[in-house]
Amino acid sequence: MARTALIVNFMINTYDHDDADLLLPSVRACLPAVSRLLAHARRCDVPVTYVNDNFGQWRSHHGEILETALRGPHADLVRAVAPDETSLFVVKARHSAFYETPLSYLIRQESVDHVVLCGQVTEQCVLYSALDAHIRHLKVTVPRDAVATGSRPVECQAAS
């Protein structure tokens, strides 16, 4: 039986990193869409998996990662999209949600053939996760309004 899963990428965050100032406005802008996706997934019994860095704390677990982020200066951003008791949580070490994590196994166990990716950072974690989902023959959807970017906007100018 085919099924969709929602993957929430790197939204449990302390924003204590070099590119946070560039990222924060984009995170605030995408929060309503991520919240809507989460609410819809939970209403429709769509599996939700959070995939998150552990910020180099290799002995931490998902509860500790969440608690640390909720104690930080941007707890409002985390609280708005925090995992509930039915959510799964996968800790990752690199950009992709799939790279050396149990996510592929979890998706197979849930008979998932379509993943919806949301979160941050579009040009890193979301991109690599989308590519890795694609090579696993999964259908991939990335809602444009539900991803945050840490890049400066590029202004295009017409050639004279």
What are its keywords?
globular, 160 residues, six-stranded parallel sheet, alpha/beta
Task: Give a brief rundown of this model.
With 160 residues, the chain is an alpha/beta fold.
Kindly provide the radius of gyration, computed on alpha-carbon positions and rounded to a whole number of angstroms.
Answer: 16 Å
Spans where pLDDT lies below 50 across 5 or more residues = none
User: How would the global form be characterised?
Assistant: globular
Span between termini: 56 Å
What is the succession of H and E elements? EHEHHEHEHEE
Determine the mean pLDDT.
89
Structural class: alpha/beta
Largest sheet: 6 strands, parallel
Helix content: 25-40%
Percent strand equals 15-25%
Count of helical stretches = 5
Number of E-type strands = 6
Descriptive report:
By secondary structure, this protein is an alpha/beta fold. The protein has helices spanning 20-43, 62-70, 75-79, 103-109, 122-135, and strands spanning 4-9, 48-53, 88-92, 114-120, 139-141, 147-148. Strands 1, 2, 3, 4, 5 and 6 form a 6-stranded parallel β-sheet that branches. It is built from 5 helices and 6 strands, in the order βαβααβαβαββ.
Topology:
Layout: E1 4-9, H1 20-43, E2 48-53, H2 62-70, H3 75-79, E3 88-92, H4 103-109, E4 114-120, H5 122-135, E5 139-141, E6 147-148
Parallel strand pairs: 1-2, 1-4, 2-3, 4-5, 4-6
